[in-house]
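Whiteboard transcription, Tuesday session. T.W. wrote the structure tokens on the left side:
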């Protein structure tokens, strides 16, 4: 006990010393202090936590590159683009690329990629990220968030000297292999020209090749949380020199149960770091993670923090009986093909039915491919590439393709089965109508999906879509049957109605009363 007290006292003193040292250093010069020493300090007392918070705040002031913080929030720009910003000293947005405070090598890269102006999340995310502040961005997928965090990461690498040693200096965590590979593809675009090495690690494939890649050196590591933890625990890599962390699709990572792995990884990162978190929604689990690891941060919400459907998508709902589903689906396919389609993405709920539906489509003259979690990584990559390149225009998928998948030219999404939740529905249909394009979705509902009717109506209403009468009827019927069931459940059966006993006036011993006193 005494030993623990002394140990914690010594650590606390160390922290105070470090804090004073760094304040002095910062006053003397604006260079980044050597705060990495603080790594070894353990969280143990309340005082230590508050000291660490102060230390982080001090160190954040030293982490800017070419942008000065503390400009006023541009209220006009925010209201025009439906942005809400929470935080102090928030730098103003980069409204165009020319006047942005990016170094020339980034401006040139953006020009070469053909981007003429920043997307909304980029315009407000870039200056905040460059100012060194922790950042939370609430924005839907397809809004340009990958470059919103990758380009400041490049500046971070280029304009800061990192600690010598093994392991990445930038880590991007993503929920699925598909998203991780997609981020890697974007990063590969500037890998050569900027002399930065990117490695992508994810589960489901052999570790050996990925470990080999890591050992050859890495600047930006893109990882799924499970595989990253595996490599940290087996000492293949370390995050001890990582100073820029991105959590992409944080809400989905938590939904998928990755919270322990994310927390474990963040514990490995030095305290002098910058964390950027992107999420489509802002539920309490994500808030807790932000509170625990980001401390003070700037939050930028693009649109609502509630998940809503992309308004560029025309949503159609078809209601039929279970036995009519296949005919309805074929009718939709014929209808779409008559319009001269681009790419069509069809969702079903089971892996087995993905295979069956793919076969049915092929037999009917529609060359389709199917993807689901039981396919090997190589098969999944080949199929996605075929779909991306346009070699095949029809992809049948389970929810593995529901989020983050960015394929150009998807004009139609068909939900053969309605997904488990309306959130999944929004993500699925969001594969079309990307980058300001228009899209169309068709969703087949049967009586088995009646419990979802009400929430689907809310999604349609929010997106100003027509709500079919059948759907309203389905929702009403479901509600009234539910009510009936509930009243039946609570109907006094054998013994007729009696007033509820007042438990508080009874003795503990007879709290549950005799059999005759139980009513239901
Ligand atoms: P993301 O949300 O990162 O998946 O990006 C969605 C799509 O937007 C990708 O195809 C990007 O290439 C594209 N994109 C990213 N930034 C811009 C920009 N500034 N202007 C136009 N398109 C962009």
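and on the right, the sequence the group agreed on:
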């Amino acid at each position: 006990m005494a030993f623990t007290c002394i140990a914690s006292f010594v650590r606390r003193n160390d922290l105070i010393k470090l804090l004073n040292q760094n304040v002095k250093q910062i006053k003397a010069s604006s260079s980044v202090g050597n705060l990495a020493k603080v790594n070894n300090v353990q969280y143990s007392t309340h005082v230590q936590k508050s000291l660490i918070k102060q230390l982080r705040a001090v160190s954040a002031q030293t982490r800017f590159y070419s942008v000065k913080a503390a400009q006023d929030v541009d209220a006009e720009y925010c209201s025009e683009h439906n942005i809400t910003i929470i935080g102090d000293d928030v730098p103003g947005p980069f409204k165009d690329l020319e006047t942005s405070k990016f170094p020339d090598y980034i401006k040139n890269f953006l020009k070469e990629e053909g981007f003429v102006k920043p997307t909304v999340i980029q315009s407000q995310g870039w200056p905040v990220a460059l100012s060194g502040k922790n950042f939370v961005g609430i924005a839907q997928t397809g809004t340009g968030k990958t470059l919103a965090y990758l380009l400041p990461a490049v500046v971070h690498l280029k304009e800061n000297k990192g600690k010598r040693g093994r392991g990445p200096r930038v880590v991007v965590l993503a929920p699925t292999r598909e998203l991780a590979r997609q981020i890697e593809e974007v990063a590969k675009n500037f890998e050569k020209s900027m002399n930065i090495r990117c490695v992508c690690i994810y589960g489901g494939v052999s570790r050996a090749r990925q470990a080999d890649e890591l050992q050859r050196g890495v600047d930006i590591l893109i990882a799924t949380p499970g595989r990253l933890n595996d490599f940290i625990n087996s000492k293949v890599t370390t995050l001890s020199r990582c100073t820029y962390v991105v959590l992409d699709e944080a809400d989905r990572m938590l939904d998928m149960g990755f919270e322990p792995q994310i927390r474990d990884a963040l514990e490995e990162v030095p305290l002098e770091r910058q964390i950027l978190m992107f999420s489509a929604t802002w539920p309490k689990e994500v808030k807790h993670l932000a509170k625990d690891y980001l401390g003070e941060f700037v939050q930028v919400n693009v649109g609502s923090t509630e998940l809503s459907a992309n308004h560029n998508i025309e949503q159609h709902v078809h209601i039929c009986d279970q036995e009519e589903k296949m005919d309805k689906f074929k009718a939709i396919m014929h209808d779409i093909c008559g319009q001269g389609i681009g790419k069509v993405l069809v969702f079903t709920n089971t892996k087995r039915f993905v295979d069956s539906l793919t076969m049915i489509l092929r037999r009917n003259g529609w060359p389709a491919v199917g993807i689901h979690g039981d396919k090997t990584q190589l098969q999944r990559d080949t199929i996605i590439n075929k779909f991306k390149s346009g070699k095949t225009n029809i992809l049948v998928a389970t929810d593995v393709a529901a989020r983050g998948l960015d394929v150009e030219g998807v004009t139609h999404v068909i939900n053969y089965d309605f997904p488990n939740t309306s959130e999944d529905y929004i993500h699925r249909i969001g594969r079309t109508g990307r980058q300001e394009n228009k899209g169309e979705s068709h969703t087949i509902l049967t009586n088995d999906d009646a419990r979802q009717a009400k929430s689907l109506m809310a999604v349609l209403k929010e997106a100003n879509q027509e709500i079919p009468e059948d759907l309203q009827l389905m929702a009403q019927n479901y509600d009234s049957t539910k009510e009936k069931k509930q009243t039946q459940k609570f109907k006094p059966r054998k013994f007729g109605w009696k007033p509820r006993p007042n438990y508080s006036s009874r003795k503990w011993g007879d709290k549950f009363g005799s059999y005759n006193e139980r009513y239901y």
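Someone added at the bottom: The chain is about 45% helix and 15% strand.
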